[in-house]
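Encode chain A's predicted structure.
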Amino acid sequence: MDEPQPEDPDRDPSLPAIAGLTAQQEQKLLQAIGLIEEVLGHG
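Encoded structure for chain A:
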């Protein structure tokens, strides 16, 4: 994995890859992230 580079505008940690997605893609991604977080949280 790459190290986080908060000074790089293309890799702003507060704005992950979602910024370039459509609303529908973003919603699907957020749902997937939610499932992953749920699994990891119960792990």
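Helices lie at 23-42.
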